[in-house]
Amino acid sequence: MALPSLKQLQYLVALHEHQHFGRAAEACNVTQSTLSAGLKELEMVLRLHLVERTRRLIVFTPVGHRVVRRAQELLLRARELSDVSAVDVAPLSGALRLSVIPTVAPFLLPRILSSIRQDYPELQLQIHEEMSHEGCLALSSGTRDCMLLALPYDCGDYEYMPVLEDPIVVALNREDPLAAAHTIDATALPPERLLLLHGGHCLRDHALIACRRTGPGPQSAPGASIHTLVQLVDAGLGVTLLPKMAVDCGVTAGTNVVVRPLSGPDAQRTICLAWRRNSPRGEAFALLALKIREATLDRGVGARREVQGPRGEASPSTDPSMIEKVDQAVKINLFLNQMAAP
């Protein structure tokens, strides 16, 4: 009995992800004709019709969707098998596909990438900036290895290791009467003037939690970016809530926008690294999280503290024994480096 190849399954999953033959072929580093031929061979092997091809649309048949899900599972197991050998060679080496949410990527990555590249020159980071729900789905399907996201967020049953606490602050025009306060209470924020990112951004949910609001919430800003929010506040069109890491990176520089601390126990988000449970590279990801934490502390970003969930309960995190093991490995590496130094 003929069996489908991993390459054919990879073509199918790529087409399902990109919904375009050209982009799927590019993602697989093959020509479009090679990908199309591979999919036809897969359909012949399985004796199933998986994809309906038209000039404008790609439509997966019901059985095609089921085969895609099974193909994702098989590819994930194949990648984990490959990871077993990679762990024995060097924990942080080779390709690593990292998903990062848009409200973290432009502000955190510049502070950590050079340090990671310096300490782990054999690590090939592939950065994918995507929304929280997209990254979580990619993590579950195996198309991403780990993810930088902000808690609280219901991403799934993964391992989480916090790297920093990011306070949420109030941004308002310098002429706004609220700017006279040293700290602003959430109840003082005018809901009719509060501007937030559109739904889908977890920062919007964090902001609503921080200002103790439920339901549809305040108006969404056009453009859906932190920089757009700052420009609207600069024009006197309202107030907004920003992550402090964005302010530290100068997002309000050159504007008439000032920031004030927001009072309340929920006026923060926890940036963490997440990965699939029981991943063969789990210890490597924990080591990467420690490196990110170290790099942010060196740059004066965030603070190390106990992570609390949205209602005060402890957030999911890594097994303490793993963190202790990685911490011990870091200390041993530092000792060996000191001994080898002239």
Would you kindly provide a written description of the structure presented here, covering whatever features stand out?
By secondary structure, the chain is an alpha/beta fold. It folds into three domains: 6-84, Orthogonal Bundle (Arc Repressor Mutant, subunit A); 92-162 and 271-331, 3-Layer(aba) Sandwich (D-Maltodextrin-Binding Protein, domain 2), CATH 3.40.190; 165-261, 3-Layer(aba) Sandwich (D-Maltodextrin-Binding Protein, domain 2), CATH 3.40.190.10. The protein has helices at residues 6-18, 21-27, 32-46, 62-89, 105-119, 132-141, 202-210, 226-234, 244-248, 282-298, 320-340; strands at 51-53, 58-60, 94-100, 123-129, 146-151, 158-173, 194-196, 219-220, 239-243, 257-261, 268-276. It starts with 5 loop residues before the first helix and ends with a helix.
Reconstruct the topology from this structure.
Blueprint: H1 6-18, H2 21-27, H3 32-46, E1 51-53, E2 58-60, H4 62-89, E3 94-100, H5 105-119, E4 123-129, H6 132-141, E5 146-151, E6 158-173, E7 194-196, H7 202-210, E8 219-220, H8 226-234, E9 239-243, H9 244-248, E10 257-261, E11 268-276, H10 282-298, H11 320-340
Helix pairs in contact: 1-2, 1-3, 1-4, 2-3, 5-10, 10-11
Q: Kindly state the mean pLDDT as a whole number?
A: 80
- Report the sheet-strand fraction: 15-25%
Q: For the CA atoms, what is the radius of gyration?
A: 23 Å
| CATH structural class of the largest domain | Alpha Beta
CATH superfamily of the largest domain: Periplasmic binding protein-like II
Quickly count the helices: 11
User: Whole-Å distance between the termini?
Assistant: 63 Å
